[in-house]
Amino acid sequence: MASPVIFDRQLLRARRRRAAALGPSTFLLDRVADDLADRLAAVKRQFDRALDLGTPSDAVCSVLRESGKVASAIAADAIAVEADHSKLSVMADEEALPFGDASLDLVVSLLALQFVNDLPGTLVQIRRALRPDGLLLAALAGGDTLTELRQAFAAAETEIEGGLSPRVAPFADLRDLGALLQRAGFALPVTDVDRLTVRYASPLALMHDLRRMGATNALAERRRRPLRRATLQRMMQIYGERFADADGRIRATFDIVWLSGWAPHESQQQPLKPGSAQRRLADALGAKEFPAGEKAGR
Asked: What distances in angstroms separate CA 207 from CA 25, 32, 216, 220, 270, one per listed residue?
């Protein structure tokens, strides 16, 4: 069964080209790249061949070079090869990876995978491309990212136009993404979230920043006619009423969800079989154990 088409991938590429021409806003990507450097430093091993998948800048390649942990790296992206010939790149979409099975040791992706239509399928492709004991490290927007903008637009459109249209992309939550890693066959899957609250002078300033990130509305089911001025003005008013601080600046939430998982290998730690424990949990905790149904005395 074909996966649903959530994003207009051709429009996404056009939006990224526009962002590059405008002068990209990279503060969020820079922060995530710094976090990547810390996470990679904690991994006590070397990688022969690494892939930067879809990251909309050279941030990952810079981190990989400076880490000293990677012998060679390649970037796979639908448009980056057009803009930067200083790094080894292939023209490839995140939804159709051109790599053979067990051909990579490390796959890293920053702020790209939230825009794929078939994330489970992409994770399966990454898993297959990794050699045994290969590592995936990925960060994507998730959870409550831009929840304030979503709520303000929903309230304004309901009030002014009598209905809603999709304007802010849906984002997966932490538990769902962890389950997807397991379904894709990754061992030792780990997910965590870094919440960042950014303050802007106005909702328009936020929207201009999103434009310069190449992250404005590219939903396939988006409304095609222009946004009405009255709706925009009401959205800005609602945003200010609900999500402004005492100094008048508004808040915008960005949830960065981190995924990590390993291609299975016999050397990896394995869970014990049920019933094989050599020590009772109550003894380890220094607690008294009560039979099922019996309550502890007060």
From this structure: 12, 20, 8, 19, 47
DSSP 162-189: SS----S-----HHHHHHHHHHTT-EEE
Residues 6 or more apart in contact with residue 37 via CB below 8 angstroms: 63, 66, 67
How high is the pLDDT of residue 258?
97
Query: For residue 80, how far is the Cα from the chain centroid?
Result: 19
Query: Side by side, which strands form the sheet with 104-110?
Result: 89-91, 70-77, 47-53, 104-110, 130-142, 250-262, 187-200
Q: Which domains does the chain have, with CATH numbers?
A: 9-146+171-201+253-266 (3.40.50.150)
pLDDT tens-digit series, residues 211-249:
999 998 888 888 888 889 999 999 999 999 999 999 999
DSSP 8-state class, residue 245 = -
* pLDDT > 70: percent of the chain: 86
* Stronger pLDDT, 58 or 48, i.e. the higher one: 48
pLDDT of residue 4: 83
Provide CB contacts within 8 A for 281, sequence distance 6+.
Answer: none
- Quick check: 177 pLDDT over 50? yes
Rounded to a whole number, what is the distance in angstroms from the first to the last CA of the chain?
57
Q: Is 152 exposed, middle or buried (0-12, 13-18, 19+ CB in 10 A)?
A: buried
Residue 155 half-sphere exposure toward CB, CA atoms < 13 A: 16
pLDDT, one tens digit per residue, over 281-293 is 667 666 766 665 5
**How many Å apart are CA 59 and CA 34, to the nearest integer?**
9
* CA 195 from centre of chain: 12
